[in-house]
Write a structure and sequence with these properties.
The protein is an alpha/beta fold. The protein has 2 domains: 2-141 and 265-290, P-loop containing nucleotide triphosphate hydrolases (Rossmann fold); 147-257, 3-Layer(aba) Sandwich (Udp-n-acetylmuramoylalanyl-d-glutamate--2,6- Diaminopimelate Ligase, Chain: A, domain 1). 33% of the residues lie in helices and 20% in strands. It is built from 11 helices and 11 strands. It has helices spanning 15-27, 42-52, 90-97, 142-145, 149-156, 187-190, 204-211, 228-237, 249-257, 268-281, 284-290, and strands at residues 2-8, 32-37, 78-83, 100-105, 125-130, 137-139, 159-162, 174-177, 195-200, 215-221, 241-244. The radius of gyration is 22 Å and the shape is elongated. The two termini are 14 Å apart. The relative contact order is 0.16.
């Protein structure tokens, strides 16, 4: 059995994302995977809850101490993946757990030689937010950075007028500002899938045009209650969450900007996407090296 500690060189560069992707990659390579979070703060508790939700791995669902990451009771094909806090002494944590350390760095860093997985002392390094996909590189990805409807509700302090079937977990890959006037063919909106549309609450024609396309969230700005017809339309089809923002369109867009790439990693769509990206980043040889193979 193998133990891998995942730790970032600095905060907020995606160690949790990489840990989930690595678990996905290893699990679908045929191994039994357990994913844990080391630490004792609120961020660690949130990450541990995420790990417990993964269908392809087991987890305690609680932050653990390094001493709890052991090989006891695990089979030969079992793998433990443990995320350590960014900036911690990853080498010391990995040594205490009897583990390989996989270091996560941001764009511009060069990866370590995978000989480290065999104990030669050079750290295996994966570059997150890379400018392109490739071995030991995970590219910057719009879906992975996308906020959920719940994130948008938080950052713009919105009132929820109607919720879609997908609810607050739905991801908004694009944020589209409504045009001055509606076009009957909706070319502006049809260019973007999985989007949130932002428009003034009195622009019913623009809002209705957006609803005829793949709009996961419709954000009405200005703080003025919209037409009851619009609310009924959204509540009736349940394909779109309707929000009322207290600020104007410019203020709302400024608030939304801070939601991209800054919210905790979560959601089935993101899990599947990072799994696919890790298939490219780590080939069978890289996986074998991390697991202590030849």
């Amino acid at each position: 059995m193998a133990v891998i500690v995942v730790s970032a060189s600095e905060p907020r560069i995606g160690a949790t994302t990489i840990a989930v992707g690595l678990a996905h990659r290893v699990a679908y390579a045929g191994h039994s995977v357990r994913v844990e979070r080391l630490g004792d703060d609120d961020r660690a508790r949130g990450d541990a809850a995420l790990f417990a939700s993964l269908e392809f791995a087991s987890s305690s669902g609680e932050p653990l101490a390094v001493t709890a990451i052991t090989a006891g009771g695990q089979g030969a094909d079992s793998v433990i993946i443990a995320e350590a806090a960014a900036g911690a002494d990853g080498v010391a944590v990995a040594r205490a757990a009897g583990a390989v350390l996989l270091l996560v760095r941001a764009r511009g860093a060069t990866r370590g030689d995978d000989g480290a997985a065999r104990g030669t002392g050079v750290l295996p390094t994966i570059v997150n937010y890379a400018d392109h996909a490739g071995p030991w590189r995970v590219p910057e990805d719009r879906l992975l950075a996308a906020p959920s409807v719940g994130d948008l509700i938080d950052v713009i302090r919105a009132s929820v007028l109607a919720r879609s079937v997908e609810g607050d977990a739905a991801l908004c890959e694009h944020i589209v500002v409504g045009p001055i006037a509606e076009d009957s063919d909706e070319p502006h909106f049809r260019r973007f899938a999985r989007k949130a549309v932002v428009t003034r609450s009195e622009k019913v024609d623009v809002a209705l045009a957006a609803l005829r396309t793949d709009t996961r969230c419709l954000i009405l700005t200005g703080g003025v209650d919209p037409s009851p017809y619009l609310i009924d339309r959204v509540a009736g089809d349940r394909n779109t969450t309707l929000l009322l923002a207290p600020g104007d369109t410019v203020e709302t867009m400024r608030d939304i900007e801070h939601a991209f790439g800054s919210r905790p990693f979560s959601g089935d769509e993101k899990i599947e996407r990072i799994g696919a990206l890790m298939d490219t980043a780590l080939d069978d040889g890289a996986v074998s090296a991390l697991l202590g193979g030849p």
